[in-house]
Amino acid sequence: VSSPGSTLTPLSPQRLQAAVHYTVGSLCQDVAEDKEVQFSKQTVAAIAEITFRQCEIFAKDLEMFARHAKRSTINTEDVKLLARRSNSLLKYITQKSEELALSNMEQKEKKKKKSSASMGGRTAEQEAAVTESEDSSMV
Q: I want to staple 11 with a disulfide (CB 3.0 to 4.6 A). Which of 16, 73, 80, 113 is the partner?
């Protein structure tokens, strides 16, 4: 994949599969240490292969959900539809989606406040000074 701030470069299927295999291997190693068991290389390879194939199926399903809705972009609702058979996963995705939406709204509010202040809008301090000035001139 790529680092933050850089343009995204798609991975070749082989590199993506290798990345999945590496990640599965790391997860199996963590489980092995935690549960005091061992995974053979063949078992890790089989889990990685199944994981990769399932991800391909998920990608095709997501594409079809968006296409069915006459969209070219996959959105959160498509992902929720994909996760509908796992209550815990659906709950997690819904929670994260709501957190993201809230964060996006907060970012938009901050941008609005910044742009209105820089475009001649008054800050609370400026407004108080103007009001005080107006009050003193009326006396």
A: 16
Pair 83, 89: CB distance under 8 Å: yes
Q: Structure pTM? A: 0.67
Domain that holds residue 23: 13-59
Number of domains in the chain: 2
The three-class DSSP label of residue 51 is helix
Helix H or strand E encompassing 128: helix 124-138
Residue 78 neighbours by CB distance under 10 Å: 20
Contact by Cβ (8 Å): 93, 83: yes
Distance of CA 74 to the CA centre of its chain: 13
Phi/psi at 73 (5° precision)? -115, 130
**Is 48 a domain residue?**
yes
Q: 34: domain CATH number?
A: 1.10.20.10
Residue 114's pLDDT band, with cuts at 50, 70 and 90, is confident
Using one digit for the tens of pLDDT, what is the confidence trace for 62-105? 999 999 999 999 999 999 999 999 999 999 999 999 999 999 99
Given a contact cutoff of 8 angstroms between Cβ atoms, the answer to whether 17 and 52 are in contact is yes
